[in-house]
Amino acid sequence: MEGLPIIDVSGLRSDDFATRLEVAKNLGEACRTIGFFYIVGHGIPQLLQDAVFGGAKDFFAGTDEEKDAVALVNSAHNRGYLGFGKERLDEYSNFDHKESFNIGLDLAPDDPEVLAGKAFRGVNQWPEIPAWRETMLEYYDACHQLEFQIHRGLALDLDIDEEFFTEKLARPAAVLRLLRYPAGSAADGKGELGAGAHTDYGNITILAVNGVAGLQVRRRDGVWLDAPSIENAFVCNIGDCLMRWTNDVYISTPHRVTRPVEERYSVVFFMEADPETIVEAVPSCIESGGSVHYPPITVRDYLNGRLEVTYEHLLEKSGVMSEVSR
Fold it and tell me: Residue 189: pLDDT above 70?
């Protein structure tokens, strides 16, 4: 495979079962092989995408004081701004050379789960930029709905109930993450990558970029493939929880971001299921007489385990982040 497959997912919205199944099989083939694919026909308007990227630029152009007012360390649930040199996705490498802002499911302060102090159930932090919150939440909701469609397709491919994932994704631990990678070479950053090699933690990631290259995907034979930006297409990939659900039928794939030659922005939607959902192998992914590769685990516990490694240095420096979330 010389590049990532491009899949038109508009058929997932069809009333015709055969049409949905055809798309489902295309998704399944990509998930079984490279673990990455482009999607077109996703239905998210370009105007909304442009507004989100414009909002990201407005925020990252702000002062340090404005960013620090909504810093991630103010949140027990990993919502807010994280500056340069604060995240290391590859624990064996240098810190990533990027800055980011995380937005979770928008919950009111009096939401019962927020009041109960449940993990991954905090309130968002918002910068004081006109219409910024509304734009980001509109995009978050659009990606959430697209994830429902994709997961129905995956369920068809896995020969389980088409709505298997629907309830599990209703109140997700999903995060919309805005990212800025400044221009520069690896030499400028003393060997730093924009983002170190890693696999994603949840189910399906939806990535949009501003046309600047940088993403690389590690093929099964170890070769790193460039994943160039394609107009009005999203890059999607499998995360570790979906790999566990499918008992390694679908494989999450390591990827990284190189230092871009010009300023790069990306907008990423990480779909993590409800924190209390138990991730365990679905029956169709267990061969007759075969073994289950992973013990059952809640989304909450799996994410906490991964994030404690990613943010260990922050947890050591601050007592604020008593619970970490994506």
Answer: no
Domain count, the chain: 1
CB 230 within 8 A of CB 38: yes
Domain residue limits at 292: 37-317
Strand 278-279 to strand 99-104: parallel, antiparallel, or no bridges (unpaired)? unpaired
Residue count of the chain: 326
Taking the C-alpha atoms of residue 320 and residue 81, their distance in angstroms, rounded to an integer, is: 14
Does 22 map to a domain? Answer: no
- The string of pLDDT tens digits covering residues 20-46 is 999 999 999 999 999 999 999 999 999
Q: Is residue 107 part of a domain?
A: yes
Q: What is the spatial distance between Cα 289 and Cα 108, in angstroms, rounded to a whole number?
A: 48
Alpha carbon 49 to its chain centroid, in Å, reads 16
**Whole-number Cα distances in Å, 45 to 10, 13, 42, 183, 236:** 13, 16, 9, 28, 17
Beta strands in 129-273 (DSSP E): 175-181, 195-198, 204-209, 215-218, 224-226, 234-238, 255-257, 264-270
Confidence of residue 185 (pLDDT cuts 50, 70, 90): low
Residue 303 lies in a domain: yes
Strands 36-40 and 6-8, sheet pairing: parallel
pTM above 0.70, yes or no: yes
Residue 302 binned pLDDT confidence (cut-offs 50, 70, 90): very high
Q: Average of pLDDT values for 224-247? A: 94
C-alpha torsion angle, residues 182, 101, 131, 104 (rounded to 10):
150
Inform me whether the pLDDT recorded for 187 exceeds 70.
no
CATH number of the domain enclosing 220? 2.60.120.330
Indicate whether 42 belongs to any domain: yes
